[in-house]
From TrEMBL:
Protein name: Zinc finger CGNR domain-containing protein
Domain annotation Zinc finger CGNR: ranges: 146-187
One Pfam entry name: ABATE
Lineage, uppermost ranks: Bacteria, Bacillati, Actinomycetota, Actinomycetes, Kitasatosporales
Gene3D superfamilies xref list: Jann2411-like domain
Domain of life: Bacteria
Length: 191
């Protein structure tokens, strides 16, 4: 279903975007600490995403996998906001996500109301699978390209672009006015 200007983020798309943005935003932003440094943090993220039945122990290898996934999704969202370094590193990120997706299979869940994909596995693998299911959900709604990283270099927060024509580059008005002021200063300096 294509996005409409009246409803840029329908409720279930918001669930999907919230999951993905919450994941990429565990990265250090500004002066913040990385929030995906060990098994405890990954467990907390999985619990917050409602991944129950986590009887498996979360290991350091799972944390390494989470951080690699996070880097790849971040690179995709940077490309969505037109970051040039995002575009340069994009093929590697796409290749990584295409190769790794086979580890996190999804299953169609059919009802009379519709069909959506859910992770085929529980625990940590299911938690990572939920990220891919969220990506599929957003893409099906035409909203995939609306997940972006803020272009303000002191921010780099992941956000959902709610602008009418998907042209937003900054997470907030304060980030866009800071960028405008910086552009003005550099024009004044060079002019
Ligand atoms: Zn920002």
């Amino acid at each position: 279903m294509p996005q409409t200007a009246e409803e840029p983020c329908p409720p279930s798309a918001c669930d999907s975007s919230a999951l993905l943005l919450g994941f990429v935003n565990t990265a250090p932003l500004g002066d913040d600490q990385d929030r995906m440094t060990g098994p405890e943090e990954l467990s907390a993220w999985l619990a917050a995403g409602g991944r129950t039945g986590l009887d498996a122990v979360v290991t350091g290898a799972d944390v390494a996998a989470a951080r690699e996934l996070r880097d790849a999704f971040t690179m995709i969202f940077r490309a969505h906001s037109g970051c040039e370094d995002g575009e340069a590193a994009l093929p590697a990120a796409e290749d990584y996500l295409q190769r790794i997706a086979v580890r996190y299979p999804l299953t169609p869940r059919l009802t009379a109301d519709g069909c959506h994909l859910v992770p085929a596995q529980d625990g940590v693998l299911g938690g990572f699978g939920a990220l891919f299911a969220a990506a599929v959900d957003l893409a099906a709604r035409g909203a995939w390209g609306r997940l972006k990283m803020c272009k303000n270099p002191t921010c780099y927060t992941g956000f959902f672009d709610k602008t009418r024509n998907s042209s937003g580059l900054y997470c907030s008005t304060s980030c866009s006015s800071r960028a405008a002021a910086r552009a003005y200063r550099s024009r004044a300096k060079s002019g």
